[in-house]
Amino acid sequence: MGRRFYEFVVPYWEQVAAGTAPPIPGVVDTPARQEFAEIQGGLTKVVFSQSLGDDPDTKRVVISGDIGAQLAAMKAQPGKDIILSSGPGTLAEVAREPGLIDDYLVVIHSAVITAGPRLFEQFEKDLAFDLVHAEVFAGGAIIARYRDRAASWHLAGRPST
Predict the structure, then answer these.
(1) Whether the Cβ atoms of residue 94 and residue 122 lie closer than 8 Å to each other
(2) Which of 1, 34, 55, 128 maximizes the CB count within 10 A of its CB?
(3) Structural domains of the chain ordered from first start
């Protein structure tokens, strides 16, 4: 994740895990939310930053420079999945590397915001997706998991197109 996103999101979920998060109107504390906070707290967070440093106590690893190349190196290592939480600029930079992103997890909220960057506005190439899974939540949000068709071919052992 980018530094600004990291500095906004991670401390909040740490507060949720500790039971000290300030109340947010319309947000209900649930066991699932607490479980997510605890899981999130145990994950290593890789942050794209020129100003932060690594912090073993908070499981923060900082990378800078060519994000795509560094993520490709991480992806080649044995281990679990990598989840990229980013804004449009970082997403576009990473998506230009063929086969680097296998799946896109998109959350669609029941609100329209007219200002700010669009998720795919900085993309330089067209992408085709296959819907892998979708779920609708009681509050109206939808989470959709898409697989990049080029990655689908690559994952199946076929050459990418």
Answers:
(1) no
(2) 1
(3) 1-64 (no CATH), 80-161 (3.40.430.10)
How far apart are the two ends of the chain, measured CA to CA in Å? 28
Listed in sequence order, the residues at least 6 apart from 43 whose beta carbon sits closer than 8 Å to its beta carbon are 59
Asked whether the beta carbons of 89 and 68 are under 8 A apart, the reply is: no
80-116 burial, b at 16+ Cβ within 10 Å, e below that, comes to eeeebebeeebbbbbbeeeebbbbbeeeeeeeeeeee
- Sorted by sequence, the CB contacts under 8 Å of residue 61 that are 6+ apart come out as 44, 45, 46, 47, 54
Tell me the residue type at 71. Answer: L
Both tokens of residue 110?
Answer: 């029941």
| C-alpha Rg value of the chain to the nearest Å | 17
d(CA 58, CA 46): 11
Angle (deg, nearest 10), helices 31-42 and 3-18: 130
Q: Which two tokens stand for residue 117?
A: 């960057």
